[in-house]
What does this fold into?
Amino acid sequence: MNTYTSSSNSRESSTSHSQGNNQGGGLGTIIRMSIGLMVLCGLVYPIVMTAAAQTLFPHQANGSLVKDDSGQIVGSALIGQSFTDSKYFHGRVSSIEYNGAGSGSGNLAPSNEALTERAAQSFSDWKENNPQVAVSEVPADLLTNSASGLDPHITPQAAAVQIPRIVKATGLSESQLTQLVEKHTEGPDLGLFGESRVNVLLLNIELGQLLK
Amino acid sequence: MTLLGWVSIGLTLLLVLVLARPTGIYLARVFHSEGARMPLNGIFGPIEKLLFKLFGIKETNQTWKSYATALILTNVFMMLLVYTVLRLQGSLPLNPSGIAGMEPTLAFNTTISFMTNTNLQHYSGESGLSYLSQTLGITFMMFTAPATSLAIAFAFMRGIAGKPLGNFFVDLVRSIVRVLMPIAIIAAILFIALGTPQTFAPTETVTTLQGAEQQIARGPIASFLSIKELGNNGGGFMGVNSAHPFENTNGINNMLQIVLMLLLTTSLPFAYGRIVGSAKEGRVLFVAMSIMFMMMLGIAVTAEQSGNPALHQLGMSGPSMEGKEVRFGVAQSALYAVVTTASETGAVNTMHDTLTPLGGLVPLGNMMLNTVFGGVGVGFVNVLMYAMIAVFLSGLMVGRTPEFLGRKLEIREMKLIAVTLIIQPILILVPTAIALVFYPETISNAGFHGISQVLYEYTSSAANNGSGFEGLGDATPYWNISTGLVMFFGRYISMITLLAVAGSLMAKRPVPVTSGTFKTSNATFGTIFVGTILIVGALTFFPILVLGPIAEHLTLWK
It folds into this structure.
């Protein structure tokens, strides 16, 4: 279905007519169009989208901030935090210490010795702090850097292997903690996309409430 | 990897497959029909008319030379505008974090990077750009760069179909009004609903559960994200791009990004079939590219799933999770890496520097071939160039003057194509050698991987992809200027030479189809086409791949 017929009839004349110059625009068009599109795509579009976002989804639009019981903002549901206290569940190893002013990780290649050294350090830390659980049972995510350095999640297994340590540190029962982890385990989205995971901050907020 | 991982990959690609044809037909009707016959003309027609009037655009056809001149002058003027914004951002509004003006070589690199649809980033968004630069500078170019690519793709297709090339200004505005902006708006709303922030409020400071202070950078991310993926731009709002939990919140968000990256580029073969009047011509290219894509995907997933032997020796089990996010795991990370390089987007949801050697070879290979779909528009033009080379080689074998779509490919066309073909390896390999000799201190991973790091940076620049092995210390004047030039020439030389090919073919008298005519719409041609790409690619790049990723692989699996 060729809908170009009208112009193909006049092809010869129209191409020779425009030979050698910028018909339908010269520098004036270039300047006007560039500035016009800059305002349209670079200002109008993001501002209109922001207005729509703030009206329709204000919580998400502002960074999914989470408050504690007292109404104090304690973080974002999407951004990981550094947990070092043995009574809390710990997140992944972050080379930027979960500083959300930036993002990043070590970018260590599989063949880089610094990677093996850092992992060996994580292994010996694990043995020291979690004598109850053998290193071989610890899933890889807990002992490696994420991509962003802000990964809010760990795998459900990575949460489970921390339970013995937390039992010892808090006195809560193992079944209580197992239930808590199960409650905070999200499956793949729509049951299909992505992986099962536990949000460490949300898990620890509820753990903190149990400890009060 | 679990069965579910494969199912999720399959479903995502199925969605892409379902959308490709209707999108292609929509594009063909937008760029190859008139006024009232265009889809949704009641909505877009008046907007377009108003903009044509405001900008002083007349709907007249241009010669290939005027088309190319208009394209380059427009792109250069847009670069000047954005360069100015980046340099002066410190004293301009919408800068709540008080970010200073950008250093000249970095601004040079960044401006070229976004205008050429590359989106290589030698800065981190959180600390390097004000909100004004992110919107007025970067988001603006994220629309106009793919619009430029779409324009040239349709000019090229019209030319080889023997029709007038069209008008650059009309095509540019039309791409934005009828294709990029409407889809970007819908996608941005979806991203916001899925948790991606969209605000001009400054960085939030919170007190964490353990009582420490945490800064949380945010911004108008969703509006940026949608056009970043749709336009195969790929530059991140945040430093770590779509690995950042705000810029890619969950599995659905991730799936949507993958679909957007592939939407336009997989649809172009169908638009092409429509324009040249034979759906088969487009379909064979689509199938050929899909086969190459699936091969790449298989290698990448298997490599990442097998993990890192160096860590396994320590007692760690399972797949390689270094540089990956838990919510994506191996399946969605490997898929994303393949898609982002096949579509020359350059967004990442995993750190490519940390990929296993063979897992990292796949993105490199995609960018070197630059024909496994390729970036919106220019990727498909490159594909058509390879189709012509395949026809030419077949013609040589049987001793017949090669014809493409009923037009003879002669000395002039083949010379222009040869120039285009030889430019890419020169742009990649020469600066790689220079950097390895003179700037080894910028390499962060020693050994063979260091070669891959440098090679990846220039391959990504020349292919206008923009992803990187980010450990590389690339924020230096040498890297800024050298990759800036590679991106510039990687983009515009092939645009000019291939427009000239289109202009030359357009002027030719069609030769009648006979029983001896070599068909370009059947499986035989598809096979020759894939063979041509793989042979040309392997002959050019195999030696350096042996020195980089392959050597690293052999060291790890000794």
In short: Residues 25-62 of chain A form one domain. The two ends of chain A are 73 Å apart (CA to CA). Chain A has two domains: 25-62, 64-211. The first strand of chain A starts at residue 65 and ends at 67.
